Amino acid sequence: MNNKTILAIESSCDETAMAIIKDNILVANVVSSQIKQHQDNGGVVPELASRLHLENIDAVFMETMKKAKLTISDIELIAVVAGPGLIGALHVGVMFAKSIAFINNIKLLPVHHIAGHIYANELIDEFVFPVLAIVVSGGHTELVVMNDHLDFNVIGRTLDDAIGETYDKVARVLGLGYPGGPIIDKLAGQGHNIYHFPSPKINDADYDFSYSGLKSAVINKVNQLRMKKEAFNKEDIVCSFQESAIAPLIVKTNKAIQEYHINHVVLAGGVAANSFLRKRLQEEFTSQVKLTLPPLWCCTDNAAMIASLARYYDVDELETNLNFKVNPNKELVKQR
User: Which of 285, 282, 276 is nearest to 247 (CA)?
Assistant: First the structure.
């Protein structure tokens, strides 16, 4: 781990965020969220997101430097998310990072958004390898094994919809609003698991997931009940949905712990804030392995996690390349 002063920039979706770590201490963390601007559309509008990043990024930078009580001359490394994410949103953050890196002769490091989510856990707890990261967000559902820092081995992923995306779509058909995850999580605690929706898994032999069948089953059930004019409680629908959505994560996590001799399980991504998932993980795995659940403030997109990740790159050997491109479909692979 290096002890450089790092400015991190995150703009992959609908948060414009910057953070600074100095001597391995987080001294500034600023997030400008766009959720209110996207709510009327029931989800993130890429073009609007890009425009809002452009409007907000200068102010976020100035506030971050002010909170850290630093000047740009104090920054030794800039880490910026280059993918995955919305291509226009990524471009805003990357072009801003390239500009200030070039003008001020600062080393620049492009990093992976999901790797950042995993390293949010390192802000509160040191990894004990081998580590299993459960990545759950609007665009990703993955199981990642790490035998060392920056050693990412994706052993399972969703083959269609991500779990967070599924939550949003179920919330939309029920008219619950956006984002759907927090709303469903709250309502599910008031309902009963009375509907038998299919478990979103491929088979017991691998670690991949499939959420499209569960999403379709819930939507079809709601439409069927409405067509028949049968009364139903939204709380029961979302409770049953959530039980089915979380179940395969628990099953496959347990299988991976045994097969890969895992010492430490960490949770990462926006859905890491889900209270039911956190409760189930604590019930199942606290006695088996070390379990780290990130604080709620660093589950959603932020730049503190990006700065945390950047600490593990060898900055002294890093050669800045301003010609790198954003990659909205960037794969998570071993970094060294």
Answer: 276
What is the strand order of the sheet 264-268 is part of?
Answer: 153-157, 141-146, 131-136, 264-268, 290-292
* pLDDT tens per residue across span 270-315: 999 999 999 999 999 999 999 999 999 999 999 999 999 999 998 8
Predicted pLDDT of residue 13? 92
**Amino acid identity, residue 54?**
L
**Cα–Cα distance, 276 to 93 (Å, whole number):** 33
pLDDT in tens, 154-213: 999 999 999 999 999 999 999 999 889 999 999 999 999 999 998 876 666 689 999 999
> Smallest Cα–Cα separation from 244: which of 287, 182, 172, 184?
184
pLDDT > 90 in the chain, percent: 86
Choosing among 1.10.10.1100, 3.30.420.40, 3.30.70.360, 2.40.10.240, the CATH entry for 6-118+299-317 is: 3.30.420.40
| Predicted local distance difference test score (pLDDT) of residue 202 | 63
**DSSP-assigned letter for residue 120:** G
Whether the CB-CB separation of 9 and 93 falls below 8 Å is answered with: yes
* pLDDT of 38: 83
Identify whether the C-beta of residue 79 lies closer than 8 Å to the C-beta of residue 2.
Answer: no
Please name which of 116, 113, 120 lies closest in space to residue 89, comparing C-alpha atoms: 113
The full DSSP string for 132-187 is EEEEESSS-EEEEEESSTT--EEEEEBSS--HHHHHHHHHHHTT--SSHHHHHHHH
- At 117, phi and psi to the nearest 5? -60, -40
**98's tokens:** 């390239």
Domain with CATH 3.30.420.40 in the chain: 6-118+299-317, 128-293
Strands 141-146 and 153-157: antiparallel
Question: Cα separation of 205 and 273, whole Å?
Answer: 28
